[in-house]
Task: inverse folding
């Protein structure tokens, strides 16, 4: 993979309000969004910006935030997940009742399906919290 060399940060509008920050190499060819770049590529971009020091000791999240601060790019806060913890726990309780009913009726296939859904919802509740 070829390095970016003297690269620039470019905004590309995808939809009505969505703006993606792209890295552009010296030929003017668009590479990929900053969030999708590897640490090695981000270090090359950061080295080209004189305001950023200590590039080699930074990890990916530090590099992204430093580049965005240097280029006055607003960081968008991502939503952790949809719904609240209470909603998810309510769904888990309902599924546990269905699972217990399926287990009592000796329907192992449905009990397994409900168990897997409960497991997914538990993971979702951890992300929401």
Result:
């Amino acid at each position: 993979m070829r390095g970016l060399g003297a690269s620039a940060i470019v905004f590309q509008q995808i939809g009505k309000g969505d703006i993606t920050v792209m890295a552009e190499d010296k030929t003017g060819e668009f590479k990929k969004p900053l969030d999708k770049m590897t640490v090695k590529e981000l270090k090359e971009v950061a080295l080209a910006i004189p305001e950023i020091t200590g590039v080699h000791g930074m990890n990916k999240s530090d590099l992204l935030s430093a580049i965005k601060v240097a280029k006055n790019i607003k960081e968008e806060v991502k939503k952790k997940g949809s719904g609240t913890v209470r909603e998810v726990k309510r769904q888990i309780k309902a599924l546990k009742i269905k699972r217990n009913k399926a287990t009592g009726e000796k329907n192992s296939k449905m009990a397994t399906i409900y168990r897997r859904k409960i497991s997914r919802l538990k993971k979702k509740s951890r992300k929401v919290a």
